[in-house]
Design goal:
- The structure holds two protein chains of two kinds.
- Chain A is an all-beta fold.
- Chain A is about 0% helix and about 50% strand.
- In chain A, the strands form two sheets. In chain A, strands 2, 4, 5, 6, 9, 10 and 11 form a seven-stranded mixed β-sheet that branches. Chain A has a four-stranded antiparallel β-sheet with strand order 1-3-8-7, with no helix packed on it.
- Chain B is mostly beta strands.
- Helices cover about 0% and strands about 50% of the residues of chain B.
- In chain B, strands 2, 5, 6, 10, 11 and 12 form a six-stranded mixed β-sheet that branches. A four-stranded antiparallel β-sheet of chain B has the order 3-9-8-7, with no helix packed on it.
- In chain B, strand 10 and strand 11 form a beta hairpin.
- The chains are: A mainly beta, B mainly beta.
- At the A-B interface, strand 5 and strand 10 of A face strand 5, strand 6 and strand 11 of B.
């Protein structure tokens, strides 16, 4: 079974631009979560989507948004990029939203975004 | 609230040394606990997990025991290898199905 895939793997943008990142979950997984990873803050939860609906949200400004499609693929958008948005953006999928205690998340390799 | 605190790195060990990476948590209810590992240039991979008090998760020679009384989930390995060099993340999943991660501990194993 193929793992979580993220595209693109690397991205360079300038301040003020916007960017869209894509995540394809493991086949059959319906929940997709997004995280921002930076050296100073570690992993911070952005949001989680399940059945095309945002179910959980972290403490990020409204410039960060996402969506999920009927095939469970998800996109994350960041508008008006700032230098501090430079980070590794990780996507993780899991079979269900309200899974039992055995549920876990499976991570993709990430998209490394550099904002100049 | 929910949070995970893990020991600061970086940690440097010689091959075959004993490894402990401390992790403590704060959570409401009864969370599940995880250790993830991130190898250079890759995403996070699940290393082991425990879903209730006194459970021991184990994988690839690594172990961690869910200690409710001390709210801890320390990662241990008896004999590390160079290939274990990576960043290790402790995490919890609360009853609301939200994940919280520690800041990560970088481990370098030298031959």
């Amino acid at each position: 079974k193929a793992g979580v895939t993220q595209t693109p793997r690397y991205l360079i943008k300038t301040r003020g631009q916007q960017v869209t990142l894509s995540c394809s979950p493991i086949s059959g997984h319906r929940s997709v979560s997004w995280y921002q990873q930076t050296p100073g803050q570690g992993l911070q939860f952005l949001f989680e989507y399940f059945s095309e609906t945002q179910r959980n949200k972290g403490n990020f400004p409204g410039r960060f948004s996402g969506r999920q499609f009927s095939n469970s693929r998800s996109e994350m958008n960041v508008s008006t990029l700032e230098l501090g948005d430079s980070a590794l953006y990780l996507c993780a999928s899991s079979p269900r939203l309200a899974g039992g205690p055995e549920e876990t998340q499976y991570f993709g390799p990430g998209t490394r975004l550099l904002v100049l | 609230g929910n949070s995970v605190t893990q020991m600061e790195g970086p940690v440097t060990l010689s091959e075959e040394a004993f490894l402990t990476i401390n992790c403590t948590y704060t959570a409401t209810g009864y969370p599940s606990l995880f250790w993830y590992v991130q190898y250079p240039g890759e995403g996070l991979q699940l290393l082991l997990k425990a879903t209730k008090a006194d459970d021991k998760g184990s994988n690839k020679g690594f172990e961690a025991t869910y200690r409710k009384e001390t709210t801890s989930f320390h990662l241990e390995k008896g004999s590390v290898q160079v290939s274990d060099s990576a960043v290790y993340f402790c995490a919890l999943r609360n009853t609301g199905n939200q994940f919280y991660f520690g800041t990560g501990t970088s481990l370098t194993v030298i031959p």
